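Thread title: Can someone regenerate the structure for this chain?

I was given the following input by a collaborator and told the matching structure tokens would be attached. They weren't. Posting the sequence so someone can regenerate them.
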Amino acid sequence: MLNNKTIAVVVPCYNESQQIMMVLDSMPSFVDRIIVVDDASKDDTVDTVMKHLDNNTSDLKLTSNLKNEIVPNIYNRADIEVRQKSIDEIQKFTPSEIVNKIPDQEKIVVIKHLTNGGVGAAIATGYKWCKDHDIDCTAVMAGDGQMDPDELESICKPVVDEGIDYVKGNRLIHKSAWVIIPRVRFLGNSILSILTKVASGYWGVSDTQSGYTAISNNALNSVPLYDIYKRYGMPNDLLVKLNIAFCTIREVKIKPIYGVGEKSKLNIIKVSLPILFLLIRCFFTRLQTKYLYRSFHPLYLLYWVAFIIGIINSYFLYQLIANFFIPNSKTPTDYLIIFIFLTISGFQSLLFAMWMDIQDNERLSK
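Best answer:
Regenerated them for you:
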């Protein structure tokens, strides 16, 4: 425990039989539960973990809150509905099974996906277990050993001591980042971070792809875990969902770690376009849900005015470019005036919308 708060670590794995024990053996003593989620590995990751589960019993017994029956009365109908929703939503997660015989009493809980769902799906499964067992702070550490266990306490402290809902490790602000992180990944991460700022509303986040995180029980109960993006865009999608739920966030500096025996399964070209489309969809979902349905805000109109002006202005831009390349043609003066007017108006509308967005979400960055 930390500050009398229960701590769990979700370890998503896919073909990590060579690395997983290094992660488990180095786990800090204050961790109460380690949730190993195997995403239908083709190697013997699960067998490797199960063979090394000596003295796996824990002094802290945890029981799922879904097992607790609620006696109906006139005041707790809402509580009953929430409990039933938590029971029903299990069907929406990637099918899985718990390998342990007595998981509520064992420190390392092994959950095996019956089908491959992706890293996001594996983390969501681990989150679900922690939510159902009322874990106060749930961290995520990759199964390939790329996260320093000595930094886990600094990741969890803001959650347990200050009540921050979500804490992310930031590798880009470390002095060694430019040297250790491969250049292509550094550039790709920086671009995705900029796009995610706009999509999520967390304008202060600068390492969105970092998977070293900690999340509060309040945040786990505030977002639809089963709906989290199942692949490598999971951190970006989760940030948007957390922002819609008004969850607070903080970044802490961590070391970038490469060359510890990990084998990257990330195909940058393959995942870039899906993540880009995901961010576009998430941006409009955030605008509609947070600034129209829940509480109307002028920035919603300003964003849409900017987009509509941009669409209309594309016609005049096309005409100007076409006339420029056609021999002996003359660009209509009225087209040029309209284009300049719309460009200035659209830019101002977009600028004011982004400024309002930053001001409104500043309170969530702690």
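The CA atoms of residues 134 and 270 lie 37 Å apart.
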